[in-house]
Write a structure and sequence with these properties.
The complex is a heterotrimer of chains A (437), B (343) and C (397). Chain A is of the alpha/beta class. Chain A folds into two domains: 47-182 and 328-406, Rossmann fold, CATH 3.40.50; 184-320 and 410-429, Rossmann fold (3-Layer(aba) Sandwich). Chain A is 38% helix and 19% strand. In chain A, the strands form four sheets. Chain A has a seven-stranded mixed β-sheet with strand order 9-8-10-11-12-15-16, sandwiched between helices. The longest helix of chain A has 19 residues, at 348-366. Chain A is globular, with a radius of gyration of 23 Å. Chain B has 13 helices and four strands. In chain B, strands 1-4 form a two-stranded antiparallel sheet. In chain B, strands 2-3 form a two-stranded antiparallel ribbon. In chain B, strand 2 and strand 3 form a beta hairpin. The two termini of chain B are 20 Å apart. Chain C is mainly α and 397 residues long. Helix content of chain C is 68%, strand content 4%. Chain C is built from 17 helices and six strands. Chain C is globular, with a radius of gyration of 24 Å. In chain C, a hairpin with a 4-residue loop joins strand 1 (105-106) and strand 2 (111-112). The chains are: A alpha/beta (437), B mainly alpha (343), C mainly alpha (397). At the B-C interface, helix 4, helix 6, helix 11 and helix 13 of B face helix 7, helix 13, strand 6 and helix 15 of C.
Chain lengths: 437, 343, 397
């Protein structure tokens, strides 16, 4: 018995022992496993300082389609842009636990990145709920984070009565979090704009999937739709595990709304809902959602359009919290395709932009500085200064005092039967056209 | 069968034996009333929704209840067997090259028969294999061991599907076309009719099997008293294997229904469905097949009723709250359990 | 007429003497063990194989997280291992402890009660809920208790998610205060970047809890638990109040879970409903079962090992296999690309296999209590040999 005990323990020890000494590939490619831990550095060029950029995204399981293309954006930027005097490599972390993003894992990962002295900047996270756990940590350490995809307003603005400074108890006035994606308070308003102004619908039924993102954006839609003059006939919240929406659809069909808005992500069953709408003769009722359903064409596996099916796809709309008309879009797409053999993801350009922000900051503050800690705080201070602007893949942008991007553009998309994909309709710049106009 | 039945024997109206179906009827009527109160003119449509999803839960619950009745094991892997059944049906349909509804009735019937047979057969065999290798040795072990093993098996099945086939949503072409049958007051889709009819047919077939055939009697006697059954010449291992086969086959059929009715499947739906189906089995009275059916419908009704009254986000709390309430106030379930008398 | 024995009595070896000493002074043993853990574990993190995976600070942070699960497992061990009650919804009390801390030490209700007091408050609240849940349900037989606790474990996160006005729903409660050491022991702060104070705290909490639990185990209550676990009817006929005894086990388990929740919340700084699902309950249960039900120390060690494997071992395993460059295999509609296996994807498969394997081969766990091992291997030769050897010795003397 004791031998067996030892044998089992020995097996476990052997596993951990044999695992050491393997080299980690620094560049993640689509479909391949993500690596964690410090990446191997190709020796720094003579005289240049070896620094790292951290990536904190969900890379495995069901989240891989979200995280991997985004991480690739960072790698593409590093390959294309060099900062003289510095060699930049990646320290990649994965916050997915068993295929689902985990706030605890995210906080642990930021801790790991903080402890790696050569990490000067982090791109990530992808999910707002993970950001909530990470912002206190990066704030305490003074390590700047740039999220390409977080849209929850509460991370930088007062939202639901909660002051964002509660997220940065250590250094409330020295922000260490910025984002290039604009926020859901604008995305929900854009959704209302599509429904009321673009489609001319006066009555709507609102749903959300009870999760942070979905509920936030649906609540904003409801407020804005009413402000524009529309009537909201009801607001339901089916649990995110629902797959049978038939009774929900029956109730809604009884209320006969002109427009149905569902805040949520495809994995909460939105595609199923739209399909069941079509099955109950509601295919001609317009359906709108946020960037949670803008996840690929009808040919992409598990996307909203694919699940909703041919009957459900028409008359659907979605928004994306980023510019569509990014300068040099074609060049970016072909560069991405050349490096990774596949089309870029929704947030690849945003991650590219975050990296550009870092590299430009490094260039400005890095001359002559060799102390890594000083570099880290200098980068943070530079990015946190609102007067600095950056020339990025998304256009020229700067960050305000809260860390929000100056680009307040939401892109509108509608289903196109010819291409069986989301087709760009127009984009609205909320700085030019504020809410209520 | 039960003690009550023998007590009420004689030339009287067999109330005892009809007790189950009577209570089922009562529950259905009461639920309709509650739905009608909340949904008004949509009551028939919502009622049909409730019955359909209830039928699905009932099919899964039957497997749970049969296994628990015979070896007193909560087979946590049962929800995963249902999930695997749906993936098997997806596999068969895709291999046959079908991409949408089939309108040609003879061909539809043939395809349905093939899909059902294969799914039920495969899942039945899988169930038997799991019992043979994971549960048989632990038949006399303290309760926790087979419970943990069952959860372990459920993880294994989930992971095999998530890594082997897909870790996100898989669309299954819905074979039955969505034609509506209009009956004036309400209209019902052919799919709903099929699901309800199939579930009822399978339940009746199961009931007949258990009560009328030798194997069924062997199952009942093993459930009642294993040692006495052995003394009577019943092969316990075979009987238990057959129980698992039938329960898993029913779960496989439920998996096909999931594909027909909902049209998608994911590797992790087994947990939620399994939990609710198990709630159904306990609600109705574990070990009692009529109870499983009753419980399934009750859960379906509870979900629809929560939604109709505007509390869709609380539906899970309502279902599990009902479970906790039933277990506290009437642990044997609505129809009473049918298990061996253990001292 | 006894045969004179020519075998001289054995002198106890030094190891034997140390064992005997610590066996008789369990609290001292636990304190010594905690000191060893505090001093040695971080040093192990500096040694070659482990230092390649992360810095010492990373490891110590990981140990603090593991400490939460050790606490959970030790508490669940009281319920499942000692008293024999099946509890599948343990995460509910974990959530209650965490949210209690969130109410008491965040801007949400504008209360700022110190962490050390919140530990006691959180533990008390969780204990109260333990009694609340246990009272109506503990008279149920084993499996039904499992189901009820499972139901309760599912209800609590749903309630937290939907009771927006009371719990801030899906957004959770942010800005939880960090503990403060008030400058004692020269500790400058429980910052987000400094894992050491958390490590020391969690080792301290685990140590105190284990001392209390070992005391309980040796008390009348502990023996009553064993009696109930073995044969409830016989225990009842011996005059043990089964209801009170079970209730106490349940609420003590809940208390420990509450402690873990308070610590976890203070370390993470934010609580959201999705952190407390069935996965947490089940992980704790697996740790108890795999570690060795009934053996507090074994469960603690098992929990630590399992947590470390889960959080770092599997990721490293993936890198090893990746570097082997194995070919792709296709079987019908199922395609298996062995070359790029990411072991994190297989985490639950390995977990499931480990659980099934353990239950079939060694149901008493990795470090079982001897009583448990005897229970589960009544008919194996080993025990028979042991018994026969004893008998022979007795005849010899």
């Amino acid at each position: 018995m004791k031998l067996r005990n030892l044998g089992v323990l020995g097996g476990i020890a052997a596993l951990t022992l044999t695992a050491c000494g393997s080299s980690a590939t620094p560049v993640p490619t689509t479909g391949a496993a993500a690596t964690t831990g410090p990446a191997a550095t190709t020796g720094p060029a003579a005289g240049s300082i070896a620094v790292k950029i951290g990536i904190e995204l969900p890379m495995t399981g069901g989240e891989a389609p979200n995280g991997v293309p985004t991480a690739n954006g960072v790698a593409l930027a590093l390959a294309k842009i060099q900062v003289p005097g510095f060699t930049v490599t990646i320290n990649q972390q994965d916050d997915a636990v068993n295929g689902v993003h985990s706030a605890t894992q995210g906080a642990t990962n930021i801790g790991t990145l903080v402890n790696d002295a050569s990490v000067l900047f982090v791109v990530g996270p992808y999910n707002s709920s993970v950001a909530q756990a990470e912002i206190p940590v990066s704030n305490a350490a003074g390590l700047m984070q740039c999220s390409p995809a977080n849209t929850n307003p509460g991370l930088t603005k007062t939202w639901g009565g909660v002051d964002p400074k509660t997220l940065r108890p250590t250094n409330p006035d020295k922000i260490a979090y910025v984002r290039v994606a604009t926020t859901d308070d604008l995305q929900g308003a854009a959704g209302a704009d599509i429904a009321y102004n673009l489609q001319g619908k006066k009555t709507a039924y609102v749903l959300d999937d009870t999760q942070t993102y979905g509920k936030g954006i649906a609540d904003v839609f409801e407020t804005q739709f009413k402000a524009l003059g529309g009537t909201v006939l009801g607001h339901d919240s089916p649990p995110s595990t629902t797959s049978d929406f038939t009774s929900e659809v029956t109730t809604i069909s009884g209320k006969k709304p002109d427009y149905v808005y569902y805040g949520g992500v495809t994995t909460s069953g939105l595609g199923l809902f739209r399909k069941q709408m079509a099955q109950q003769n509601m295919a001609s009722t317009d359906f709108g959602g946020g960037d949670g359903i803008n996840d690929g064409s009808a040919a992409t596996a598990s996307s909203f359009l694919q699940i909703a099916g041919d009957a459900g796809d028409p008359n659907t709309f979605s928004t994306v919290a980023a510019t569509h008309d990014i300068p040099g879009l074609d060049a970016f797409n072909s560069a991405y395709k050349a490096m990774f053999n596949t089309d870029p993801g929704s947030y690849s350009a945003a991650a590219y932009a975050c990296t550009q922000v870092f590299l430009q900051a490094l260039k400005s503050v890095g001359t002559g500085v060799t102390d890594l800690a000083a570099l880290r705080s200098a980068v943070r201070a530079y990015v946190a200064t609102p007067s600095n602007s950056y020339d990025t893949q998304l256009g020229t942008l700067s960050f305000d005092a809260n860390g929000d991007t100056s680009q307040k553009v939401i892109s509108y998309y509608g289903f196109d039967a010819t291409s069986k994909d989301w087709k760009f309709i127009k984009q609205r710049d909320f700085t030019q056209q504020p809410l209520g106009q | 069968m039960t003690a009550e039945a023998t007590a009420l024997s004689g030339p009287r109206f067999p109330v005892a034996r009809l007790r189950g179906p009577l209570i089922l009827l009562l529950v259905i009527l009461a639920s309709y009333a509650v739905i009608a109160f909340g949904a008004g003119e949509q009551a028939p449509a919502q009622f049909i929704n409730a019955v359909t999803i209830g039928a699905l839960y009932a099919l899964i619950a039957l497997g749970y209840t049969m296994v628990y009745g015979i070896i007193e094991l909560i087979n946590f892997a049962h929800g995963e067997i249902f999930m695997c059944g749906s993936f098997v049906s997806w596999s068969v349909i895709t291999t046959m090259g079908i991409t949408g509804a089939i309108t040609d009735i003879p061909r539809l019937v043939i395809v349905l028969v093939v899909v059902f047979l294969i799914s039920m057969l495969v899942m039945g065999v899988v169930g038997v294999i799991i019992e043979r290798f994971a549960y048989r040795r632990l038949r006399n072990a303290p309760r926790l061991a087979p419970l943990i093993t069952a959860i372990g098996v459920s993880f294994i099945l989930q992971n095999i599907i998530s890594v082997g086939i897909s870790n996100s949503v898989v669309t299954i072409p819905q074979l039955i076309p969505n034609t509506k049958l209009d009956f004036g007051v309400f209209s019902i889709s052919v799919i709903n009719v099929f699901v309800i009819a199939l579930a009822l047919a399978l339940m009746v077939a199961l009931h007949l099997f258990i009560t009328q055939t030798r194997l069924g009697t062997a199952m009942r006697s093993t459930a009642m008293d294993r040692e006495a059954a052995q003394l009577m010449g019943v092969n316990i291992n075979t009987t238990i294997a057959i129980t698992f086969f039938i329960g898993s086959a029913l779960a496989g059929a439920a998996g096909v229904v999931q594909g027909l009715y909902i049209g998608v499947t994911v590797f992790n739906i087994g947990f939620n469905y399994g939990l609710k189906a198990f709630t159904a089995a306990v609600l109705g009275g574990i070990g009692n097949t009529t109870g499983a059916v009753l419980g399934g419908f009750v859960i379906g009704f509870l979900e629809v009723i929560s939604q109709v009254y505007g509390y869709a986000n609380w539906s899970e709390a309502v279902v599990f709250g009902a479970l906790v309430a039933v277990l506290i106030f009437r642990p044997t379930g609505i129809l009473g359990q049918q298990l061996a008398d253990r001292a | 007429m006894t045969a004179t024995s020519t075998v001289p009595p054995r002198r106890p070896s030094p190891i034997g003497r140390i064992r005997a000493f610590f066996g008789g002074h369990q609290s001292l043993a636990i304190i010594a063990g905690a000191a060893v853990v505090l001093l040695v574990l971080p040093q192990i993190a500096l040694l070659p194989p482990f230092s390649g995976f992360g810095t010492q600070k990373d490891w110590v942070g990981g140990f603090s997280n593991a400490g939460v699960f050790v606490l959970l497992a030790v508490g669940l061990n009281v319920v499942v291992g000692l008293a024999g009650l099946l509890d599948l919804g343990y995460a509910a009390f974990f959530a209650i402890g965490a949210y209690t801390y969130a109410y008491g030490a965040s801007p949400f209700l504008n209360l700022h009660i110190p962490f050390w007091i919140m530990l006691i408050v959180g533990a008390a609240v969780a204990a109260a809920f333990g009694i609340l849940l246990g009272a109506p349900t503990l008279r149920l037989r084993g499996d039904y208790l499992a189901i009820v606790t499972l139901g309760f474990g599912e209800i609590v996160p749903v309630v937290i998610l939907n009771a927006n006005n009371y719990t801030n729903g899906t957004n959770g409660i942010t800005g939880l205060a960090q503990p403060s050491a008030y400058g004692l022991f020269g500790v400058d702060g429980f910052g987000f970047s400094n894992p050491w104070p958390y490590f020391v705290t969690v080792v301290g909490i685990v140590m105190v809890t284990m001392i209390l639990l070992y005391r309980l185990q040796d008390s009348r209550l502990g023996r009553a638990w064993v009696a109930i676990r073995e044969d409830e009817l016989a225990a009842a006929s011996m005059g043990i109040n089964t209801v009170t005894t079970k209730l106490l086990a349940f609420s003590i388990g809940a208390t420990t879970s509450g402690l873990a929740g308070v610590f976890y919340a203070s370390k993470l700084g934010v609580v959201t409903p999705d952190q407390f699902g069935f996965t947490v309950s089940f992980t704790a249960l697996a740790m108890v079962v795999l570690g060795g039900m009934g053996n507090t120390l074994g469960v603690a060690a098992g929990a630590f090992v399992i947590y470390e494997i889960q959080s770092t071992g599997l990721k490293q395993l993936g890198q090893v296999v990746q570097s082997l460059h194995l070919p792709v295999v296709a079987l019908g509609p199922i395609k298996v690309d062995i070359g790029s296996i990411n072991f994190i994807n297989y985490q639950y498969l390995l977990y499931g296999l480990a659980l099934v394997g353990m239950m079939l081969l060694r149901p008493e766990g990795l470090f079982p209590s001897r009583r448990r091992r005897q229970e589960l291997h009544e008919d194996t030769d080993e025990v028979a040999e042991f018994k026969s050897a004893e008998t022979l010795e007795a005849i010899d003397r």
